[in-house]
Amino acid sequence: MKNINKFLTIAANAILIIIAMVGIVIIWSILPLKNNFKILSVTSSSMSPAIPLGSVIVVKPESEYVVGDIITFHPVLKLRQDENITHRITKVLNEDNQVSYVTKGDANNMPDITPVTADRIVGKEIVSVAALGFLLGYIKTLPGLILVVIAPAIILIYGEVRKIRSEVEKSRQESKKVKKNKKVSKVYKKKATGSKKQKKGNKNVKK
Description:
alpha+beta, Umud Fragment, subunit A, 7-stranded antiparallel β-sheet, 7 strands, 49% helix, rod-shaped
């Protein structure tokens, strides 16, 4: 039982540390800092197999982009605030000293209709992690929040409460032991004193 509790506490600690680290990174990513990286979820399979549906990608603005780079950009008509497209650059255009990029999803047959201008680019893909987007999406739901955040927190709190109770009980037992030893010591001293008095009385009688 102790081993199970220890394992659950370690597992809960590990999960909470990971969640805290992910939370810090996500909060940092949304700060309005110049050239700050962004953490985004991939909601389509247009970049499969390089970036499967449900992946999480980290993108960062660059001073220039080249053919082969995977970039995230805003669509021409943005229907949602968080709507972005992540496709690969297939061609760089330079017309009237204005650079734009022809993009295409790896899984798509045709390139995107409208070239991407620099003002629409969020950043270049630095790293991607498959399936993590599903996990982040699941955490946002009530069952996911309970399973991934609240449950480990309860296990951790329960483990700490048990530890505190154990320490309190140990302290109480030690206190009882000390009191018992003091009581035994007093009784022993009392007996020793009585024995000395009795010996002294016997000597006086002999005289």
